[in-house]
Predict the structure.
Amino acid sequence: MTTPDLDSLRLLVLVDELGSIGQAAASLGIAQPSASKRLSTVERRLGLVLVDRTRRGSALTPDGRVIAGWAHRVLSELDGLLDGAEALRTQHEAHLRVAASMTLAEYLVPGWIGELKRGDPGLYLGLEVTNSDQAAEMAREGKVDLGFVESPGSLPGLSSRRVATDRLVLVVPASHPWARKRRPVTAAELAITPLVVRELGSGTRETVDAALRKAGVGPAKPLLELGSASAVRNAVIAGAGPAVISELAIARDVADRRLVAVAVDGVDFGRELRAVWPAGRRLAGPAAELLSIAVRNAKAR
């Protein structure tokens, strides 16, 4: 099985949305025979029949509709990647300067930026990706117009607004003894177990430590400190040890059984993700619009 090209995936998604190969081909500006040939190539590469071809016309098979749904997710992720890459590339001369913690930058901010850019294609936006402490400090010092952080504590010198809620999840690889544990892990067990953790200054690390302190068992015991949610996720999959990580980072891995989510008794790992800006300053223009988009998307989730 080989990977289909992106143009063919776009074609498949359009067939699903528009209901026919002819309309999908017209939308992409290609001839219908060329579109049919592309779809046949995708079918060969995946080893599946995606299109039911009859004398009355063509429609996606049940497998085709499932693949089209997955293709839509892949293309959406790609759009987020491209929007985020452009923001990183232009951060030093931007009209709107944004800083975001690693988890927000990986999983939420690119989508918000993409929506903002679609409404204002000429906007020159720059994104600085760092940890929550640094994102808050950059906003406090006026180095960015808007910051997005995961930190659970107070934020002196900053105004803030919740833009999303998140939950941290204890995860282990399928081979770990906790993956077969019938009862939840206790707060005390978790506190004495070395964990793969984010670096100091990370909002995720602060949330884990604060939740364990609130449960009366102290901060996490680090086994390995890493600089991003993706690095933590990969380390757990490789068998380095358990981790407590945002559900945004591991939802697919849990669904695919690469990781197993383990219940924890007596610890609240919920948190708010917040936008921050200098206290006393009223947001206006693109910064206000980006905040509005983030809040609107949070309500939709």
